[in-house]
Amino acid sequence: MVRWLSEDEQTTWSAFIRMRQRLDAAMAAGLARDGLSMPDYEILVALSAAPGDCLRARDLAAEMCWDKSRLSKHLARMDSRGLVARTPATDDARGIVVRLTARGRHALERAAPNHVDLVRRLFIDDLTDDEAKAVRTLAEKVTTAAEHTTTLT
Description:
This protein has helices spanning 7-32, 38-49, 57-64, 68-80, 102-124, 129-152; strands at 54-56, 84-89, 92-100. It is mainly α. It has a three-stranded antiparallel β-sheet. A hairpin with a 2-residue loop joins strand 2 (84-89) and strand 3 (92-100). Helix 1 crosses helix 5. The two termini are 20 Å apart.
C-alpha cells in the first residue's frame, strides 16, 4: 500500500525541489561565467583533493554517482579542453587514471573564488548556526538513506 504524502509533506518536498532547482541553476550560471559547468567543477574539485591530483576513473564515477558511460563522455570533453588527462592504469590494463592538468588547476583556481562567494551569498550567510547544523543533520540522514537504497537495487 502506498503511503501518499500529506499536504504538509508534499509542500516540504516541493519546497526542497524548488530550492534545489534554483540553487543548481544559480550555481551553474555562476560557473558558466568562468567557462565551467557544474560537473566540470565537481570533477576538478574531486581531482584536486585526491593524492597526486588523480583518481581511478571508477573511483571518480563512484564519487560523482555517475555510470561509467556518462563519466567517460564527460571526461572526453574535459580532456579535449585540456582540463584533465586520462592515462591507462599501471596496475590494471583496463583501468583508467584521471589526472588534473595544470590548465584544469588554473580553471579551478580561477572559478573557485566566485563559486565560494555565490555559495556564501545564496546558502551559507543567511543560516544561523542552528539552521546550518539542521541542514548538515538532514543531509547526512538523506544521504545515508539514499546510499543504502542504491546498494539494495
